[in-house]
Amino acid sequence: VPLLAHVLDDIEPVELEFQFGNGSIALDLVATVGERWARSFERLRSPEDLRRWLREEQLIGRATITAADLASYRELRSAIFDLVQARRAHRLPPRGSLRIVNGAAKAAQSIPRLTSRWHTASNAADPVGAAAATVAADAIALLSEIDPSRIRECAADDCSRLFVDRSRPGRRRWCESTGCGNRAKTAAYRRRRSRNR
Ligand SMILES: [Zn+2]
Which of 42, 48, 146, 160 is deepest in the core (most CB within 10 A)? Predict the structure, then answer.
């Protein structure tokens, strides 16, 4: 199933904020589509948005991002989502998506170099392609090495972020941020209280 995202006009800036911390760079990229189950809106609206995402994910230093780069990251994102959903449903990997992820992984990943100013420098000739290779390699590790039952969708109705549960008991139901777990617990507490009255 391709992951479609719409560039919406009437959207709050806070909704466009990137959602990191999903336990996988590949799932962080999937999270650049907001409300997959409802409005399905695009957070990578321009090459500049992609540049910001790559920087905040610490995948690139300085780089110029083109419209073609944006298109290829969106395609990679859709393929990763497709494969994740197939993995979670115990299906075989869809071929087209497999080809896209494996293709992106072929680019040379960058070798980090520490500068005398404590910065990371990349030696990659194509830093944007190298970053895509890192994302693709992360997706490959996620899909081959992680127990698929540990790849979860946040239990909050208004979230549905995909994350990796790396906790030892493996019973996490909610994603890391946005207080999804707290919201659910508060609602349950209120329900219990009103019943007891
Ligand atoms: Zn959540």
Answer: 42
- Residue 197 pLDDT > 70: no
Question: Cβ contacts of residue 56 below 8 Å, gap of 6+?
Answer: 18, 20
77's CB contacts (< 8 A; 6+ apart) are 3, 29, 30, 32, 33
- In three-state secondary structure terms, 54 is helix
CB within 8 Å of 74: residues ≥ 6 apart: 5, 44
Distance 49 CA to ligand 1 centre (A): 22
Write out pLDDT tens, residues 112-135. 788 899 977 777 888 999 999 999
Q: Residue 78: name the closest of 38, 144, 30, 135 by CA.
A: 30
- Distances in Å between the Cα of 60 and the Cα atoms of 91, 113, 140 are 34, 12, 20
Q: Which residues place a Cβ less than 5 A from the ion ligand 1?
A: 154, 156, 159, 161, 175, 180
> And the tokens for 140?
């490959």
Distance, CA of 92 to CA of 37 (rounded, Å)? 23
Tokens 């994350």: give the residue: 163
